[in-house]
């Protein structure tokens, strides 16, 4: 049944907004009149307007909004509020936003008889498989509110770790962009004005100055060439790494990069452990959980390892043994998994491992930020220093020549020095 957003006037003449389910616009107006409200405008909800609107939602729906909705929904369900009423309450808080369109679409599916997880599955372009499968497991176990609380906590921890990663790289990235802009400004606007003075002099310019002038001349006339080369390189690299051997090479290079590689590796291990623990806690089976984690990590090398692990688990083996032949899963993590399998508390051991690797990732992130900032400052300083030195060297040489000529002219022939 379609969902309509309305603006109406209540019996006291106050402006109210909300949504109403009805087969048509006319019946929506009739339903509002039966409630004592006069409809000013009625429009079909963004969630029902057109399938293409899902693409817009995907760009506009912020992860924090989805996390906040999950937390609020878990609180309402835990307090005994029925699901449809809880969705209505959330929709009143977000009537005209992208999140409101998503909630309206989900509620419309439920009103037509779909389960909550089935309604979420219709929005698969917006919601990750992890989210849908955890909700489906919560419905099956009758603990939907607890599963939603665990899902909200999981998303909050992931967003916090990603936020720290972005915050740690924000200042070095700003320094790199600002320093590059300063260098380009010097080469395009400062150096050309000085180069005319150097060319008029009869002195032989030092090598650094000749390199600087050549670079400035190239950038003034061929500025588009570096941009075209950069764009072409990015396009070619993306095509090469889209699948197959190129993707494996990209993932291997990322994990083997100095300083950054260990950080990405620890973040991958933290996500693997915490995601698998959350899925198992929610009642998702081990094989489906491993398949979800495989897709979530988005790493070709790890995907191959998890494919072998799922095959061995299908044959009756354990996860720890299945991961033993991979160097990407350290012995400490495999040992924790083995202990969890023997004790019947695999999800608990995975959760502890996830917390450990999250702390390790935060420590590596702090070290990376402490290393990047002075390194970039030093690089920018050397670059600007090279420009300044290249400009000053010929000036010093010309001053020495003029100074020597002036001293020689002060002594007349035959006069004692």
Summarize the structure.
The chain is mainly alpha-helical and 417 residues long.
Task: Characterise this structure.
This protein is mostly helical and 417 residues long. The protein has 2 domains: 3-44; 128-399, Type II secretion system (T2SS), domain F (Receptor-associated Protein, Up-down Bundle), CATH 1.20.81. 75% of the residues lie in helices and 5% in strands. The chain has helices at 25-34, 46-49, 53-60, 63-78, 83-93, 98-111, 116-121, 129-141, 144-200, 207-221, 224-240, 244-256, 260-281, 286-297, 300-314, 319-322, 331-343, 346-409, and strands at 3-9, 15-21, 38-44. Strands 2-1-3 form a 3-stranded antiparallel β-sheet. The longest helix is centred in the C-terminal third of the chain and has 64 residues, at 346-409. The radius of gyration is 32 Å and the shape is flat.
Number of strands: 3
The coarse overall form would be flat
**Going across the major beta sheet, what is the strand order?**
2-1-3
CATH architecture of the largest domain: Up-down Bundle
Q: Name the average pLDDT.
A: 81
State the distance separating the first and last CA atoms.
109 Å
CATH superfamily of the largest domain: Type II secretion system (T2SS), domain F
CATH class of the largest domain: Mainly Alpha
Low-confidence stretches: 46-59, 406-417
- Structural class of the secondary structure composition? mainly alpha
Percent helix range: over 70%
Order of helices and strands: EEHEHHHHHHHHHHHHHHHHH
How many domains? The number is 2
Number of helices: 18
Strand content: 5-15%
State Rg: 32 Å
Largest sheet: 3 strands, antiparallel
What is the CATH fold-level name of the largest domain?
Receptor-associated Protein
Oligomer: single chain
